[in-house]
Design goal:
Strand order of the largest sheet: 2-1-4-5
Largest sheet: 4 strands, mixed
Shape: globular
Length: 457
């Protein structure tokens, strides 16, 4: 255990309090916080099964002599002799596709140092980040962003949505701008130098090191907070302090990491935002994806006009859900509802099927436990208000897939429906339930409706 367990949190809280009280403060003395206690806590929070970087050092191996290893690491850090290693690049299957996507795996000590830097940066910038920034922040998550969006659309005069997508954001962060943004709040040169070192550490692929001239560290623990800082200055502050004040009607931007939507009352404001956004991001080396960025009519008026013309209003995707115009059960009030997006649903089913195909020979009790855990995880995220059909459909497809692949463990036809039902009685699968309320206030909870799996596949 750390020698002074309370000191880490206390010191960071002191930094956070000062940052909140003095928005103009530039912190000159931060690097002393990179001590053994902070790094020890960072080590404890690492996953035991995390993949190793190019040095191939695992958590278990490093932890076998943790006291000495951390002591040597601290010594190198404070003499500025610590040099981050290139990130190990591996290609992993992309869920639901034959394509592969790159994954960066930092060396273990780099993870520790990045985790320490991330905690220091978070303590400072939490005071600065806008309320409608939700990604990678303490006590905030995707469901909070979705609730905020519901509140914005349902309780205000929203008639238009700008659904935007930044092309390859994490790969296109400009280092020069990143450091300028950090210098607004940080004057400790040692902290700044180590962030530069991580930005420039490079990527090793097939034994060859590629330079990192742009982007945040691949797979780096510090990357999410760096991304939030970059978008805070390049997007959030511009929208809040400049663009929104020029709008003639209601306007609000809700962001989760590099995924964001903007809500507008006036069409002219929405169109102008789309145009000015492109120029604003371009000045910081970022580019909108034209095919994924659109201005749509959305809201109660859009719903009424579409119905009058015999059509349906447009929809948009945000954080894995497709959002669409609807009404309350009595039809008296507008409601924005959401369901699992087609893309995410397809990926989820394919990912489960691929896993099941590869693990169908696992002992039955262990297999069923893991299937149940995967289903619970899906419900925990997608089991939101109005999405009962989406999670029930997922449960149905999982059941069908399970029946199919269990039937191939032995002779064809060895698993009939009667045997499968007996198996489900012995190892019951979790029932799909709405677990997350999208209502703004906890005092207005939507009654949870329990659903049952379809009787047969």
């Amino acid at each position: 255990m750390p020698r002074n367990n309370e000191a880490v949190g206390t010191k960071l809280q002191r930094i956070a309090d000062k940052a909140r009280k003095d928005p103009q403060c530039r912190f000159t003395s931060l690097f002393h916080l990179m001590n053994k206690d902070l790094l020890w806590e960072s080590f404890e929070q690492l996953r035991k099964d995390a993949a190793a970087g190019i040095d191939r050092v695992t958590k278990e191996e490093y932890g076998a002599n943790l006291e000495q290893n951390l002591g040597e690491l601290i010594s190198k850090l404070h003499t500025m002799s610590y040099i981050p290693q290139p990130v190990r690049k591996v290609l992993i299957p992309k869920p639901g596709s034959r394509k592969k996507r790159p994954l960066g795996i930092p060396a273990l000590e780099d993870k520790l140092v990045q985790a320490g830097l991330a905690r220091i940066l978070t303590a400072i910038y939490e005071a600065d980040f806008i309320e409608d920034s939700y990604g990678f922040r303490p006590n905030r998550g995707c469901h909070d962003a979705l609730r905020a969006l519901s509140q914005a659309v349902e309780e205000n005069a929203v008639n238009h949505i700008v659904d935007a997508d930044i092309k390859g954001f994490f790969d296109n962060v400009e280092h020069e701008w990143m450091m300028k943004f950090l210098e607004h709040r940080i004057a400790d040169k040692r902290v700044l130098r180590y962030i530069v070192r991580f930005l420039k550490a490079g990527v090793m692929s097939d034994g060859v090191v590629e330079d990192s001239d742009m982007g945040t560290p691949q797979g780096g623990i510090v990357s999410p907070v760096l991304a939030n800082i970059y978008l805070h200055y390049s997007l959030d502050l511009w929208f809040e302090r400049v663009f929104r004040k020029s709008c003639t009607g209601y306007a609000r931007l809700i962001r989760y990491a590099d995924d964001f939507v903007a809500c507008f009352q006036q069409e002219a404001d929405a169109i102008r935002f789309r145009q000015e956004l492109e120029a604003r991001l371009a000045s910081f080396g970022l580019e909108l994806s034209p095919e994924k960025t659109k201005v749509i009519k959305f809201g109660p008026i859009a719903g009424i006009k579409a119905k009058r013309n015999g059509g349906k209003p447009e929809t948009f995707d945000f954080l894995g859900f497709t959002h669409y115009c609807s009404r309350t059960r009595d039809g008296k009030r507008f409601r924005m509802k959401r369901c699992t997006s087609r893309k995410k649903y397809t990926i989820a089913i394919r990912k489960f099927t691929e896993w099941l195909k590869a693990n169908r020979t696992m002992p039955t009790h262990e297999l069923m436990e893991k299937v149940a855990a995967k289903m619970k995880g899906h419900y925990a995220y997608y089991g939101v208000t109005d999405n009962s059909q989406g999670i029930s459909r997922y449960a149905y497809e999982v059941q069908r897939s399970l029946f199919k692949w269990l039937n191939r463990r032995g002779k064809r036809g060895c698993m009939n429906w009667e045997k499968f039902k007996l198996l489900l009685e012995k190892f019951p699968l979790p029932t799909p339930r709405i677990q997350v309320s999208m209502w703004k206030s906890p005092s207005r909870p939507k009654p949870q409706k329990q659903m049952h799996l379809i009787a047969s596949p």
